[in-house]
């Protein structure tokens, strides 16, 4: 009988808000945490390690930080928590972290490159050009390594290596195939020991899609308007537009086997309970960082084309958001 994975050696790829939060929590659970970083973040981690403001306390965690994966070596667990636009260029540099049994947990927003791995019926195995245009991610991170993750927590970066947790403590994990594997159960157990509300999903794509169902609208609308979520959903016309986009995504989900048993108004009520907050995309625009439009919106348009679902409202949202981001230099300009 094979021993359950121990996940002793853990590398964080993307030690920002979510990656840094998870790194501190796992360090306190006894893991040997390292981080692939560069620039000011690398310097801060090498000097001070990771620091986390949570529940009125400042928690520190030692971390071995390096600019090269070769310096960190093979890991038991690699947590990929980068923004989606940076992953295609970064993926090949992750290879030295991956051994035969290494698990790669994705903790990212939007539709992932592995979405149709072992899922989707007749569409199983279909690559998504909008999130992995040249197939570089799929080549660099083989499907057998991947466990999907959906984060339900809000964190921000106060300074390089200094993370602030705001609310939420949930992390859903699941094999893309839906298998209840030994390794996914062991991973959930580790995350629970780290103090997270971790659960195993029998269909992680459905959890990805449900989170996307809210993010794909409120995020880009906030980036366009500069408004917090309460003001966005408090405007009757904007709320109506968002609902129409969500109905398109709901129809796509039904076609690919992940129906959502709710209406847009049900999801609006959930979001409104969180109060006034800036979405991650608005924070990125204000910090002049690339925006995650492709994983959140363009991928939905691609899925609409794959399934034959018309997406005129999604297209309008994408066109306006893309034009704004291009104008600000935060998204590649049309060739």
Describe the protein's architecture and organization.
With 335 residues, this protein is α/β, with parallel strands linked by helices. The chain folds into 2 domains: 9-202, Rossmann fold (3-Layer(aba) Sandwich); 207-327, N-(1-d-carboxylethyl)-l-norvaline Dehydrogenase, domain 2 (Orthogonal Bundle), CATH 1.10.1040.10. Helices cover 43% and strands 21% of the residues. The chain has 13 helices and 10 strands. Strands 1, 2, 3, 4, 5, 6, 7, 8, 9 and 10 form a 10-stranded mixed beta sheet that branches. Helix 7 packs across helix 13 and helix 12 (293-307) runs antiparallel to helix 13. The longest helix has 22 residues, at 204-225. It is globular.
Low-confidence stretches: none
CATH top level assignment of the largest domain: Alpha Beta
Specify the overall morphology: globular
How many helices?
Answer: 13
CATH H-level homologous superfamily name of the largest domain: NAD(P)-binding Rossmann-like Domain
Strand content: 15-25%
- Following the backbone from N to C, one meets helices and strands in this order, namely EHEHEEEHEHEHEEHEHHHHHHH
SS-derived structural category:
alpha/beta
Radius of gyration: 19 Å
What is the CATH architecture annotation of the largest domain?
Answer: 3-Layer(aba) Sandwich
Give the fraction of residues assigned to helices. Answer: 40-55%
Straight-line distance between termini: 55 Å
Mean pLDDT: 95
């Amino acid at each position: 009988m094979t021993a359950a994975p121990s996940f002793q050696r853990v590398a964080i790829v993307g030690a920002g808000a979510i990656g840094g939060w998870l790194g501190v929590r796992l360090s306190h659970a006894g893991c040997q945490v390292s981080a692939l970083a560069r620039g000011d973040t690398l310097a801060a981690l090498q000097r001070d390690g990771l620091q986390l403001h949570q529940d009125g306390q400042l928690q520190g965690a030692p971390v071995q930080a390096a600019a090269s994966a070769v310096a960190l070596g093979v890991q038991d667990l690699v947590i990929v928590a980068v923004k989606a636009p940076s992953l295609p260029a970064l993926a090949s540099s992750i290879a030295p972290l991956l051994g035969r049994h290494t698990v790669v947990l994705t903790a990212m927003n939007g539709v992932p490159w592995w979405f149709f791995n072992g899922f989707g019926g007749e569409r199983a195995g279909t690559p998504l050009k909008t999130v992995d245009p040249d197939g570089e991610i799929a080549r660099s991170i083989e499907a057998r390594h991947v466990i999907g993750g959906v984060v339900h927590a809000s964190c921000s970066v106060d300074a390089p290596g200094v993370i602030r947790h705001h609310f939420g403590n949930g992390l859903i994990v699941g094999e893309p195939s839906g298998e209840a594997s030994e390794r996914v159960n062991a991973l959930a157990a580790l995350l629970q020991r780290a103090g997270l509300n971790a659960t195993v999903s029998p269909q992680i794509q459905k959890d990805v899609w449900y989170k996307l169902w809210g993010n794909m609208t409120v995020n880009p609308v906030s980036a366009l308007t500069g408004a917090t979520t309460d003001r966005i959903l408090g405007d009757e016309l904007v709320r109506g537009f968002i609902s129409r986009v969500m109905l398109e995504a709901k129809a796509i989900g039904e076609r690919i086997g992940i129906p959502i048993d709710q209406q847009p108004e049900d999801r609006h009520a959930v979001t409104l309970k969180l109060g006034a907050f800036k979405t991650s995309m608005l924070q990125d625009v204000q910090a002049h960082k690339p925006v995650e439009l492709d994983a959140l919106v363009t991928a939905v348009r691609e899925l609409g084309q794959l399934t034959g679902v018309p997406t005129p409202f999604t297209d309008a949202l994408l066109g306006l958001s893309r034009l704004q981001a291009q104008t600000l230099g935060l998204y590649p300009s049309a060739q």
